[in-house]
Design a protein that fits this description.
Number of helices: 5
Helix content: 55-70%
Shape: globular
Structural class: mainly alpha
Strand content: under 5%
Amino acid sequence: MEHNFDPGVQFLIENELKALKISKSNMRYSEEVKGFAVSLHLYSAQAYEYVRGFLHLPHPDTIRKWASSCNVEPGFLSDVIES
């Protein structure tokens, strides 16, 4: 599989294969899938819902929960500086 697909697409395929074996409530997403989901949702919530109809992606409420755990106080963002 590694030779047939671009690494940028491979994590989505691996996510789909994993989703076939696990129930939605027990699904754990890789950092790549999380990053893809957050980026797509930030660009367009409608596009995210459309893509979510074809791929197993986290619910928008889950994305909001992930975003709420970030430190977003005024000033320098320590999470960004550490990254």
